[in-house]
């Protein structure tokens, strides 16, 4: 089966031997990876990028975001993205594995930050000029630490990215205020649900399966999803299926009927009906319009 290329950290930098972290200034990064940054691809790591100059668009999982000075983007493993630029960009970028962060902060999880908490939260943040000026030195210092062989290198980088993430989360919560949620338990349940959906969405489409996996009733699971996202459990499952179908339709060479089967639909007509219900176009119309 042809799939979207999945890139790992080792493919980006061979000069500095760290298999769980990478950093660069954008000019150098884009120059070294000019053959594929403009093509849809996935990563198996977390990505954070700050633009200090430049313009263009950043497409993440079929949603388009404007690039401008002060733009910050956050990607989780598995998301599809690519960039196109109208003017030359500048800034900083870093990647890391989940273990890199959580090894140094054993009592913290990346999902504590709103931009990594849920796929439903926007991956884009737009800083004003003062905020950008304040945060840029942290990104610059991270990059300096990465490209030098100082003692306690990993510890310093981990501390710096934690500081950057905290400041970015503060700005994010102001620009994208989260809904008031009455129970932390709901937040944890939603995180667990999204992880389980990500594993089983191709074969399991019923809310009852996921409720059983979480040891709660279907009714209570729906209450959690409704309170946190304003959706039903079935909506969440179907949206994950539709997202993957879009990725495969556009970025693989599989036939539409094969894609339906890959996603657990033996009846292509039914898959097409579900796809159109959610996107208002058929899979074939989507493929043609995207091309």
UniProtKB/TrEMBL annotation:
<dbReference type="InterPro" id="IPR014710">
    <property type="entry name" value="RmlC-like_jellyroll"/>
</dbReference>
<feature type="domain" description="HTH araC/xylS-type">
    <location>
        <begin position="191"/>
        <end position="289"/>
    </location>
</feature>
<dbReference type="InterPro" id="IPR018060">
    <property type="entry name" value="HTH_AraC"/>
</dbReference>
<dbReference type="InterPro" id="IPR003313">
    <property type="entry name" value="AraC-bd"/>
</dbReference>
<dbReference type="Pfam" id="PF02311">
    <property type="entry name" value="AraC_binding"/>
</dbReference>
<dbReference type="Pfam" id="PF12833">
    <property type="entry name" value="HTH_18"/>
</dbReference>
<dbReference type="InterPro" id="IPR009057">
    <property type="entry name" value="Homeodomain-like_sf"/>
</dbReference>
<keyword id="KW-0804">Transcription</keyword>
<keyword id="KW-0238">DNA-binding</keyword>
<protein>
    <submittedName>
        <fullName>Helix-turn-helix transcriptional regulator</fullName>
    </submittedName>
</protein>
<keyword id="KW-0805">Transcription regulation</keyword>
<dbReference type="InterPro" id="IPR037923">
    <property type="entry name" value="HTH-like"/>
</dbReference>
């Amino acid at each position: 089966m042809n799939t979207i290329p999945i890139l790992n950290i080792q493919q980006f930098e061979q000069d500095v031997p760290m298999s769980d972290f990478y950093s660069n200034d954008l000019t150098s990064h884009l120059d070294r990876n000019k053959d594929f940054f403009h093509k849809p691809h996935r990563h198996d790591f977390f990505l954070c990028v700050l633009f200090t100059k430049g313009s263009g668009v950043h497409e993440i999982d079929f949603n388009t975001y404007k690039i401008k000075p002060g733009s910050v983007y956050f990607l989780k493993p598995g998301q599809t993205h690519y960039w196109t630029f109208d003017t030359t960009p500048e800034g900083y970028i870093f990647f890391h594995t989940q273990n890199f962060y959580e090894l140094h902060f054993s009592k913290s999880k990346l999902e504590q930050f709103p931009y990594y908490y849920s796929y439903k939260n926007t991956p884009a943040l737009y800083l004003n000029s003062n905020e950008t000026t304040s945060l840029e030195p942290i990104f610059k210092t991270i990059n300096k630490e990465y490209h030098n062989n100082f003692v306690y290198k990993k510890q310093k980088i981990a501390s710096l990215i934690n500081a950057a993430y905290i400041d970015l989360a503060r700005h994010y919560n102001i620009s994208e205020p989260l809904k008031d949620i009455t129970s932390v338990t709901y937040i944890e349940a939603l995180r667990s649900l999204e992880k389980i959906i990500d594993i089983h969405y191709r074969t399991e489409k019923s809310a009852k399966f996921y409720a059983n996996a979480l040891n709660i009733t279907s009714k209570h699971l729906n209450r959690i999803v409704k309170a946190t996202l304003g959706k039903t459990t079935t909506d969440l499952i179907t949206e994950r299926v539709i997202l993957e179908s879009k990725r495969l339709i556009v970025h693989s060479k599989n036939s539409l009927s094969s894609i339906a089967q890959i996603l657990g639909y033996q009846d292509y007509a039914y898959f097409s009906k579900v796809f159109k219900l959610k996107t208002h176009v058929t899979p074939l119309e989507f493929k043609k319009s995207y091309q």
